[in-house]
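[Meeting: bench + compute handoff]

Bench side (C.D.) handed over the final construct sequence. Compute side (W.E.) agreed to return the predicted structure before the next meeting so the bench team could plan truncations. Sequence as handed over:
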Amino acid sequence: MPHPRPTLILTLLALLPCAGQVGAAESQGTVALNFREPPHSYLEHQPRDRMTRLLKTMAAGEVKIDTTSPHAHLRSMLAALEIPQSSQLLVFSASSLQSEIINPRNPRALYFNEDTYLGYVPGGKLEVISMDPTHGAIFHLFEGLDIGGAPPAVTRSTKCFNCHAGHATGRIPGLIAESLLPMPSGASLETYRRDEQGHQIPLKNRFGGWHLTGDHHLREHHANLVGLPQDSGKWEVQSAKPGEQWDINKHLLPTSDILPHLIHEHQLGFENRAFQAAYQVRQWLHDGGGRLPASAKPQFEALALAMARYILFADEAALPTEGVVGDSIYRQDFLARRKAASDGRSLRDLDLRKSIFKHRASFMLHTESWLELPKLFKDAVYYRMAEGLRPQQPAVQGAHLPAAERLAIRAILKQTMPDLPNWWR
């Protein structure tokens, strides 16, 4: 592996705290920021997310949206946003702005690609979260559908900040998912995980309040269950499999497959970590007059190391012993967006036996969410990744990867990443 140029080594080593310093940085937390205020000015920022771009093309008459029925409208929007129908996930806990109509008898469907997330509730309105390259989640709320009329008006919503810019997302606009035991009303009786997203969450703690289908081989999970309160103060847990309490034709598909669940969770963890870092680094550089303040260096490096560990799946939760299968149509749709090296290998290549991916470095590196992060931060993360991908004696963030996999990841990154530092090449 090529070594960094000496000047870059010295620059980066100046940012590297010892283990004790990293622990201290984590315990101190990051600097307080307000995403509404400079240098972020979220509400004044002109977004460049996929949904905003689509609205401009719709207004110009370049894209036509079908409004002949709710399902036609949904399919048309998914196609325009390049979101596969096969990504459908079903959640029946009372969540989102439309919680009053979400319950085990009327689940909410979620569809997603790598940067856009669309929610559909039968009898309700469409909601879209689309990721701006520098400011994170942009929230779009549709008005009611006029059957056969013009497409619904779409507004940017600030009501979503109540949940999507709270503790779970580091107080910046981000993505959330929870696992809980819903009552028939959709309200929760018990919470299995909250304020945490990412592939590190054990599978036994996920899926509460969600439908789960497919060959997942999970023996212990919280999916497809509803709780009935008892006079004793306890509750009885009953089955709520897809279609048992609602007409399955309310949705485009009867599935809420394990594979899109796994991909969705990984993406949420990546996006939140990336944009928490983006806001923190932007604030530090602003406060330091364009330079990283010395007082921020331990926290900066802790963020970079944590991001490198996440990218390399250092803490990935174990899959079942038998692995998982995954819906074949979603596999095809997911792999259709792969960015391959000259030998055909890609970061999207699936394993699904011991881990989600064959080459454990996140495919989200190919998104604008990563590519437009502050260069100072990306270079520090790349340095930590390079330490973990050394052919011999890798650092702990890559020690879980076999030598052949480390070499494969390095080769894929060299050929598919346009922003690798010169010393990496």
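W.E. noted at the follow-up: The mean pLDDT is 90. C.D. will use this when planning the next construct.
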